[in-house]
Design goal:
heterodimer, A: mainly beta, six-stranded mixed beta sheet, B: four-stranded antiparallel beta sheet
């Protein structure tokens, strides 16, 4: 299966602003997850949203899922410099037990 | 409860040598996944294993690459006769059950450099 696409590829904002990144996928899914990756490090799971859910919150994170448009968005509110990282969406697109990752959004939060 | 462990963290090999990457899943997890990440790209699935079984190797190159998850010990991703194009970060993830029901927990990765 093809990887999903994320936009923007890169995003630079000031501390305190909100950051929104989007992800699209191509086929039906059971769930979609968002991960964060700091430079040169492993992935940290942020949030999982199931196909029958439309919105989910976790702290400063808000994820939406629109299955009709095959898209998801991740909103980080009141961003901090420590949020600087790459963010990836991953779905179980195509079924089975593998995750299909998006191309990622590089977020930079400046002081 | 220790997380997913991978070693080595960095591995340098010359062309033609073998690379052996190890992954110990989280305690209680019997499902292991290997992914490869090329520079500036997302992760791409390689193989999914349960204890002593390869369940899905659809993302694994047909030649030179192999994976195992023995009854005892860590999962091993083996790359024979490495080439420069094999240079990448290789991540292992584990889950208590098969995907479709929850998240996968990722290790810190092994960064392979082929000279």
């Amino acid at each position: 299966s093809q990887q999903g696409e994320e936009d923007p590829q890169a995003l630079s904002i000031q501390e305190g602003e909100n950051a929104t990144m989007n992800c699209s996928y191509k086929t039906s899914i059971n769930n979609l997850q968002w991960y964060r990756q700091n430079s040169g490090r492993g992935l940290v799971h942020l949030i999982l949203i199931r196909s029958n859910e439309r919105e989910k919150h976790s702290g400063r994170l808000r994820v939406t899922l629109d299955t009709s448009k095959k898209s998801s968005s991740l909103l980080i509110t009141a961003s901090r410099a420590a949020d600087t990282a790459s963010y990836f969406c991953a779905s179980d697109e195509g079924g089975g037990n593998k995750l299909t990752f998006g191309t990622g959004t590089q977020l930079k939060v400046e002081l | 409860n220790a997380g997913v462990m991978q070693n080595p963290r960095h591995l340098v090999r010359r062309r033609g040598q073998e690379a052996r990457l190890r992954c110990s899943p989280m305690k209680g997890h019997s499902h292991v996944y290997w992914y490869r990440q090329l520079p500036e790209e997302g992760l791409k699935f390689m193989v999914y294993l349960q204890k002593e079984n390869i369940i899905d190797e659809s993302g694994m190159p047909k030649e030179r690459f192999s994976a195992e998850f023995p009854k005892e010990g860590p999962s091993i991703l083996r790359i024979q006769q490495v080439v420069r194009g094999d240079s990448a970060a290789y991540f292992c993830a584990s889950s208590p059950v098969g995907q479709g029901s929850g998240e996968q927990f990722f290790g810190p990765g092994t960064r392979l450099t082929v000279l």
